[in-house]
Amino acid sequence: MAAMARALAQRHDVTVLTSRAAGLPAEALDANVKVVRVPVFFRRHLAVANMPSMAAYLPMGLLRGLKLGRERRFDIINTHFAVPTGPLGDWLSARLDVPNVLSVHGGDLYDPSKKSSPHRHAFLRRAVARLLRAADCVVAQSRDTARNVEQIYGVDRKVDLIPLGIDRPPQNVRAQRSDFNLPEDAFVLVTAGRVVPRKASTQLIETLAVLQDVFLVIVGDGPELGAVKQRAAELGVENRLRILGYVPDEVKYSAYAVSDVFVSTAQHEGFGLVFLEAMSFALPVVCYNRGGQTDFLSTPDTGNVIQLNDLQAFNDAVRALRDSPERCAAVGRHNLAKVENFFIERCAERYEEVFEAAIADRAATVARLEHE
User: Fold this and answer.
1) Do 224 and 195 meet the contact criterion of CB atoms below 8 Å apart?
2) Domain count within the chain
3) Using an 8 Å Cβ cutoff, are 101 and 65 in contact?
4) Are residues 188 and 88 in the same domain?
5) Closest to 322 (Cα-Cα) out of 191, 231, 159, 186
6) Do 31 and 84 share a structural domain?
7) What is the mean pLDDT of each run of 10 residues along the chain (372 residues)?
8) Domain span holding position 137
9) Whether residues 84 and 145 fall in one domain
10) Which string of DSSP letters, residue by residue, matches 327-372?
11) Global pTM?
């Protein structure tokens, strides 16, 4: 979302309203994007938000959003995530009389790892369904998420499909394996993202135990990191595990550059931007088959897409890539070419088309009502 805001700000005035955490400033200017952060309760970490902070964001965001609306006229509201942000976008749209484009990203509609996932609770399903119906436009980033709009929430309406995009990575990233204490001749796996239950990251520790000459780099932080470290200690593979935590993009890119294969045991992905990032570094991808990544990942072209939680097949796929440097390199070249369709510039252009349609439709509706 940050990348898309920066891309849109090259041609438009963009304000981002979000929550404040970890000592970030209340306001900032980021590549011509005005970023406004409202205070919330008990949020301490960038990687995750707790329930009190999400609940507090709604009234705090409404007050700040109304103030922003009094200061200037906005043409469009783009609300990202039905939960928890959806009600805020809906309220601001009604109060400011501005079209609302609701972007749903997967986990806000369906997260099999969370008891609090809205798909599990009738009250939340009804609330989300109302938001989906009320929005001027709904955008999903994958066919999987678009299907959930109708199949889980019973909302039969047009859903625009716009794949997410990534920033084009810098050319010629300078990185050495010694920077990460990795042997030069090692076969290195990398994974990136929040270390939360949905990612099932401890399964990757099982892979290390089975493939005893393989190293794993984890880029990211989150509440399950302790469980990952504990499992690594139990299986005696800590010496082949590198945990980087939450790092700047340049460190993440360096980790991709020194790795051989990107791996993910996520139980579901709304889309999976990290897969595209890995592909932009010519990495094959091994992952499970639940989520939006199946729109652009397939066996054998991009690596291997494995039946959910078939860890033996997952390990076999990694082993096969390790044992065939020629296939590993060929898949990497394929992925490098394929990812050209998913850079942020194209994503922003498609959002502009949706914004223009929403503005035109709202104007046509107003004109019709005035005529009547």
Assistant:
1) yes
2) 2
3) no
4) no
5) 186
6) yes
7) 95 96 90 94 72 87 97 97 96 97 94 89 96 98 95 96 92 92 97 95 97 96 96 98 95 97 95 95 97 95 98 98 98 97 93 97 87 77
8) 2-165+345-371
9) yes
10) HHHHHHHHHHHHGGGGBHHHHHHHHHHHHHHHHHHHHHHHHHHHH-
11) 0.80
